[in-house]
Amino acid sequence: MQKNKFKKVIRNIHLWLGLTSGIIVFIIAVTGCLYAFQDEIQNITETYRFVPKEDSPYLPPSKLGEIAKKELPGKVLHAIKYNEKGKAATAIFYHFKPTYYYYVYLNPYTGKVQKTVNAEEGFFHFVLDGHFYLWLPHETGQIVVASATLIFLIMLITGLILWYPKNKSAAKQRFWFRWKKTTQWKRKNYDLHNITGFYIMAIALIFAVTGLVWGFNWFAYSYYTVSGGKKSLVYVDPGSKKEIRNTQVANPLDKVWLTMQSEYPEANSIEIHPPESDTTSIAANANLGDGTYWKTDYRYFDQYTLKEYKVNHIYGKLSDADTSDKLMRMNYDIHTGAVLGLPGKIFAFSISLLIASLPITGFLVWYGKRNK
To answer: Which residue has the higher pLDDT, 372 or 368?
Structure first.
C-alpha cells in the first residue's frame, strides 16, 4: 500500500513537470539535432572558408588585422584565427555591449578578403539561440532553458522509478516492444514513451548534466568541485605590467604568433588575441584536437616583454590540467558527441531526436487517459 502511494506521488511529479516543461524540452532537443552537424554542413556550403594551398608563408596577425579592420571600421578586433592548411584565416570581431559578432574570412597567404559575415544573422546562430535561450532575451532565456533542463533531469529519475517493473512478468514488456496485430495505438504509444525513455536515459542524463554546467553557475561549481576541481572556472586575464612599458618589444603580436607556430607545428588552429587595453596580456591558444576543443593549450604573454604568465583557472596549458579540469574542458565536446568524432555526433543526433519524441508520447499518454 505504501509502495503504491509512493509511485502515485512520483507519477504526479513526472506528469506535471512534463506538462509544464515538455514544449521547452522538445525545442531544446530539436535545435540540438539541427546544430549537431554545423561544422560539416558549413564546410560544404560555405566555400569562402577555403583557400588554395600555397608554399608561401602566412601573413602575420598584425597585417591580417589591419586588412580586417578596414572591413569593419570602429569595431573591436577580438582575435585572429589561423586554421589548418587549405582553410581561410578568420578575423573575429566580438563585443558584448554594444553586442556584435562578425567574422572576416581572409586568405592567409595574400590577405585577400574572402567574405565578411555577421555571425548573428546565420541559420546556425538562430538555432543556437533557440537551444541556449529559447529566442528570449539572453538573461531571461538562459534561466528558462536551464530550469527546464533541471526539470528534465528530475523527470529522467522519476521516469526510471515509474519504469521499474513490479515483477518478472511485467519486466517482459519493459525491455522490448511486444506488439501484435491487435495492439492498440495507446499501448504502442505507451511503450514508445516507456521503453525509449529507458534506453536513452543514461545518455540523456549526460546531455542534461553537461547542459546544466552552462545553465547555472552553482551547478558548474558543484559539478567541478565534486569531481575534485580546485581552480577557478572564471577566465581572469593575468595582465601586463605597467611599470615595464619602457622595455616594450617590437611587434609583440607577431612574435607571439611566431612562438605559437614554432611550438605547435601540428595544431589544427592557432588563435591570437590582441590585448584589450594597455594593462591586459596577449592571449593565444593552439587547438591540438581534431574536431574537438578540449585539447587546447591557452597561453598568456605580457604585451611589453613577452614574459609568459601562468593562470589559476582551467583555461591554461593542457599539461597543467588534472582530470577534473579536463572534464570541464570536455563539456562542449561531450554535449555534442564530438568527443567521439563523427560517430559520436551521429549518435548524439539520434539520441536528441528520441529525446524530442518523449514530450510528444508523454503528452499522448496523458491525453489518452483523460479521453478514453
So the answer is: 368
